[in-house]
Sequence to fold (111 residues):
Amino acid sequence: MDLIGYDGITNYIHMLGAGHIRYFLKKWKNLHRFSNQGWEAYNALVANYWHHRTQKGGGKGGDKSKILAIAQWILRVMMWRTGEGDRYFTEIKNGDDNHDSSGDDDDYDSD
Fold:
């Protein structure tokens, strides 16, 4: 902290300085369980979306949220990756208009 200041503390520097890395290594003998690969992959997707599919704040409608389109896109990606998109459209295809997800007999209760 004295060397680079508060702004230089990244997630990884914090994990080293706070002793989290040492704790994980001592307890589990490896860091595989605490890999950030999934988070880094989503970060890469968001960065790619931002740089290739948005006007980066330019264009008409300057008062419009610059992150809203990204948030909606991430929700769509998550919906399909978790299988909820398939389940939703299967219910529509099968004509299950009366599906009530708040019922006690629902297999998809929230955790």
Notes: Helices lie at 11-17, 20-28, 37-53, 68-81, 84-93. The mean pLDDT is 75. DSSP finds five helices and no strands in the chain.
